[in-house]
Amino acid sequence: MNQDYIQPDNWSIIEEGFDVERVKSSESLFSIGNGAMGQRANFEEYYSGKTFQGSYIAGIYYPDKTKVGWWKNGYPEYFAKVLNAPNWIGIDIEINGENLDLAKCQSVSNFRRELNMKEGIYYRSFDAVLANGTEIAVKVQRFLSLDLDEVGVINYEITALNSDAKIVFKPYVDAGVHNEDANWEEKFWEPISVKHSGNEAFVTARTFKTHFTATTFMQNSVLLEGSSLSVAPVSVQETKDKIQFSYEVAVAKGQTTTIQKIGGYTVSMNHDDTILGAKKSIAKALEIGVSQLTENQKQAWARIWEMSDITIDGDVKAQQGIRFNIFQLNQTYLGKDSRLNIGPKGFTGEKYGGSTYWDTEAYCIPFYMATKDQQVARNLLAYRYNQLDKAIENAEKLGFKNGAALYPMVTMNGEECHNEWEITFEEIHRNGAIAFAIYNYYRFTGDYSYIPEKGLEVLIGIARFWHQRATFSTYRNQYVILGVTGPNEYENNVNNNWYTNYIAKWCIDYTVAQIQRIEGEYPSDYTRIMNKVKLSQAEISAMKKVADNMYFPYSEEHGVYLQQDGFLDKELITVADLDKSQRPINQKWSWDRILRSPYIKQADTLQGFYFFEDHFTKEELEKHFDFYEPFTVHESSLSPCVHSIQAAVLGRMEQAYTFYLRTSRLDLDDYNKEVEEGLHITSMAGTWMSIVEGFGGMRVRNNQLHFEPKIPVQWKGYSFKVNFRNAIVKVEVRQEGTNVSIEGNSDVEVFVNGESQLIK
Amino acid sequence: MNQDYIQPDNWSIIEEGFDVERVKSSESLFSIGNGAMGQRANFEEYYSGKTFQGSYIAGIYYPDKTKVGWWKNGYPEYFAKVLNAPNWIGIDIEINGENLDLAKCQSVSNFRRELNMKEGIYYRSFDAVLANGTEIAVKVQRFLSLDLDEVGVINYEITALNSDAKIVFKPYVDAGVHNEDANWEEKFWEPISVKHSGNEAFVTARTFKTHFTATTFMQNSVLLEGSSLSVAPVSVQETKDKIQFSYEVAVAKGQTTTIQKIGGYTVSMNHDDTILGAKKSIAKALEIGVSQLTENQKQAWARIWEMSDITIDGDVKAQQGIRFNIFQLNQTYLGKDSRLNIGPKGFTGEKYGGSTYWDTEAYCIPFYMATKDQQVARNLLAYRYNQLDKAIENAEKLGFKNGAALYPMVTMNGEECHNEWEITFEEIHRNGAIAFAIYNYYRFTGDYSYIPEKGLEVLIGIARFWHQRATFSTYRNQYVILGVTGPNEYENNVNNNWYTNYIAKWCIDYTVAQIQRIEGEYPSDYTRIMNKVKLSQAEISAMKKVADNMYFPYSEEHGVYLQQDGFLDKELITVADLDKSQRPINQKWSWDRILRSPYIKQADTLQGFYFFEDHFTKEELEKHFDFYEPFTVHESSLSPCVHSIQAAVLGRMEQAYTFYLRTSRLDLDDYNKEVEEGLHITSMAGTWMSIVEGFGGMRVRNNQLHFEPKIPVQWKGYSFKVNFRNAIVKVEVRQEGTNVSIEGNSDVEVFVNGESQLIK
């Protein structure tokens, strides 16, 4: 654990005391989002200290020109990244002629942030003594509305503590923003227009190249002692991409003045006329009113929690951790729009370009599938179906043909947005997770219709890729897969990564089985699809031959599948025997040293055992876990959750609990020393899995839902709900025993430790 | 062969006819240099067509900020590259009010370039009809003086063909240049001063960061019908980094006017006051006079050719090829200055940053060793000795310790200047070539003194590196070397590259043997060195253990050492069976596809057989040649020469001859479709080797020089000279037999086909 300033609390993330060194970290941790937009917890008022400004609009990206040292054929020319969006939260404050800047005050006391996850509201308050001696108390409340998802609301209160004061509020909207990770220091936004009328202002800007138009808007009301002043701005400052109002309020000692700022974005993805859209949004928000909007926000979050909450008794840090994870996932993606997906940093930072990774299929879909309507998971699957043509084009760039599809490692719009050859071209296992998610969706929801409708085409493209990508080794008389990077990115360009070979074989087998099923059960879909993809029996036989004769590296000596052909050549020194000063190795070692070490960034062979648990015995799992776990450094956020689940399966509850804490409090406690850059959103779904699938032991077997609950000794109990085939199954696990209640679909059968649970 | 416009000629490179599409190619092919500076064959007069401007000063570099997509620990922050130097050759021409621009003339006829390699002079001539109808004939002669190596001379003649003409010569010097390969479009030169006096001008500029100061100078004389006009410029145009004179001459129809421009650079590496240095250079040049300077140039080149020429009878293209190679090597490096080295593109382009690669040790040293005084090769060795501390620092960055040295892949000043992890961190075999060159120098020159003086410290640093870099595989019970890139850069991050393992073992063995010899024969050097490097007997034993137990991958089935552990897993389709449309694969295939293919960019295992030929039988060589040659695509310029030598050893003369043509005319015929970017200088030394060591069969055995001459059927004969231990050995091979003459050191013994040759 590397930081511990966040106060333990069941429902809130709380920081107390002002520390300039924590500002960027807290900007990440207190981020808010509503699925359509999100923002780091930057201060509204000007701040001259170290800060990382970030506001993001879902689906708005920019193709930054690729930056590489040495160009290699097949690299994308452009690299889509999430855009830092215009700022609508800014409110400069002037008090008795001096600007409020927390970095420049004589003193700041009672500084407190609270992100109330139950309500979906972010609070900040502090007392400050300005350089000119004026003492003030400030209370701020901010949220992004779930109901009106183009709208955010700020309530900013200032109380004059030691004298009368002239307070100037200077709210603004500003499109003059840039990305910290811009490759060429280019501007991404082109200003189009700046308009204002009364207390409303609109800055419209268009992204270069992608030509998304966004209007960033604000509407301001000023209050004194809670009563509206009905004032207009005393002055308006305009540049080509920014507009700022000034409101002056004379406040007597002890009095409180408030600015209520309604702001947000309307974008051309949703509006023909974004300014008109913005005006309508403001009107709607004003009609509801700030107070009712706030109430609605709490109710909307209550509805989310109703289904997705996990309770933990007797361990407040564990409770806070899981709720933080569930909260952030829901802030990032709500499943309303199939054009959107889940970036590894959500709306909390720029790194990883805000794009879609295999994380969505491998980690996020199970969470959304179980805690939302099945349509949400279906939308996530459809996202890939809609990008199938681009995946085929992507494979063509790498020399594949005839409809073989390679999904990009990273994408915003279906095109590859990554450019390290060992990952872009070689981390091809991502294709496997995309196929697995289709199977997983059907297994959990029971909804087969997706496969004839859309899924089979994706499966065929993927199976074709694996067929063409395998090489027949005359030497082994089997098919091998050469030159790949597995989930463990600390090995590059290896031969026969077990996970990749295994999922490749599985993809082909699963695809062929679905072709047969659809031929029998959905003949018209079969005909439509086969006419489209032109898959011959000869091709099916050829791909089946690859699956049937796939090579898997295995060590007789150790009784385990080898992560890759060369694994045993390595010096097998365990992580426990590695000097702590060398950790994390990705910050301490050069790349070649990492590559030739045995250290595993994230579950790789064990990831395969996670996906295909039922293909192996518990003894096999144990053997592999005992072999690989000691070499795993978990320097990927996606790793500890899988190990937590497997430790739980093996009954190693202390280890499972340790991994659980690591995954659930990864960001709160900043294990990997990088929370300043943003949160690890996608791995948060892994945290959810480590409770539901790990401790709860949830599995689907024979179309039935099974639980084998276990409980860490630290806990009195825990509970969660899942939506299994439209039955809402609530599981309450206590040290004394497990209680299951089921509502809805009465066809489903649920078992606890093998015993059927009647529907109550 | 991809182009054939260069006219065959024994002593000259000749182009006839003007073709805008050939301009950039010819700018490379007609490049001139004198070891201290060099330049592409850009036109003196303004040219609006496609051109690649390039002038370079030896030793002047700039640390460009490294550009990578994804940073990895150990990458250098800066990346030294050769600088495009200020332009001193420019002479804008105005005729009857119109600018001469070959891209804009009504017609250009009789266009001819000739690079006379015997004289070291570049000629260009053409007739042109300008848009205004004026017809002129132009003759230009240019050279960079070998005697005064800061000075170049241009003689530019214009004859008015169809009318009287007012001709304005506008010679200039200009520091406002940039690099085409600049990473961030930064300026590299900061202007310091612009001065002029009479017909002389001086632009002084300083490189940013490295702070090299260079004065670029010119002195102009104008003649009419061969008589000096003693005129001063009619006007002078100055900016902060450029100065341009104008001279006006009224020419009657049929008359000829000439501008003689003396120009060049003086740099702060050699002068405290570069302007004063420039004035002295001009004064010296004027004192000698253009006519005598030209005569001196021819004599200086005659002295070079006297020793380094190779004659070939009966095959003008082969003759032209080898002379072009020898000429370019001598233009690039003359061995006068141990601060300098040989960049892969010499002074002919920017690519590869003009830096030093292992090419110097593996390819160039044999050429310089045999055709120059041994001090030249010693200077090249000392270059690495002088950079030993930085090689140790470089190894430390990658986690090595205790004096282990890893020489950079690419360097200007000892620091690593390359940033692809698979090469920078993994193409570590370069260390082996640097050790091999020390051995090779001693073997050929008989001068052991270099090793106790300097070489042993380098050897110990390198041996320590290999010792630490090897990994003990308990699985194999041998030492392995994991995660390397061999000379074949079409495989990355492989395990147990045979070449690397072999040269690593050899380096340790050779180092330990030299330690023992120096302990016995040079006790005071021994004490000095051991006190400095603190090498214990225990460390020596430990490193010897690695060498004695090194693993070499071997295939019983094929009877060959395997290029690397995974080679046999590949689909072994020969180059002959690869569709021609797929070649060159580095332009057609994505990187992953190249990596999993069996195709070899350049000799790898065979490179080892070349270095260590006497460790293997001819049968073993044949077996390996027959196994690897069919997979070799020779997409590195460094490859065909090694294959040519080995084909000759195996008596396959037709194949040897084909490879010889490919290496010797690589640039003239533009085999790799990239000559526009510059010439392949370092591989030219390989061409020399393919005659002397391949056809000539030159070997040093038991301190004696042996020849086993062979001759391609296409040739009547060939001859070359080598300086072996201060004996000048001239070998003339004809279809009828071989004649050897020896001058100088009478201690040396020379054998032809095993028969001793008496000194005549």
Automatic annotation (TrEMBL), chains A, B:
GO biological process entries: carbohydrate metabolic process
Span-the-membrane segments of this chain are none
- Which residue range or ranges hold the Glycoside hydrolase family 65 central catalytic domain? 323-689
Residues the record marks as active site: E489 (proton donor)
Pfam families with a match to the protein in the record: Glyco_hydro_65C, Glyco_hydro_65m, Glyco_hydro_65N
List residues of the Glycoside hydrolase family 65 C-terminal domain.
698-756
- SUPFAM superfamilies linked to this entry: Galactose mutarotase-like (SSF74650), Six-hairpin glycosidases (SSF48208)
The residues covered by the Glycoside hydrolase family 65 N-terminal domain are: 14-268
Where along the chain is substrate bound? W358, D359, K601, Q602
One annotated GO molecular function: carbohydrate binding
Which InterPro entries has this protein been placed in? Answer: 6-hairpin_glycosidase_sf, 6hp_glycosidase-like_sf, Gal_mutarotase_sf_dom, GH65_N, Glyco_hydro_65_C, Glyco_hydro_65_M, Glyco_hydro_65_N, Malt_Pase/Glycosyl_Hdrlase
Q: Which PANTHER family match?
A: GLYCOSYL HYDROLASE-RELATED, MALTOSE PHOSPHORYLASE
The record's family statement is: Belongs to the glycosyl hydrolase 65 family.
Instruction: Tell me what this protein is called.
Output: Maltose phosphorylase
Can you name the source organism?
A: Flavobacterium cucumis
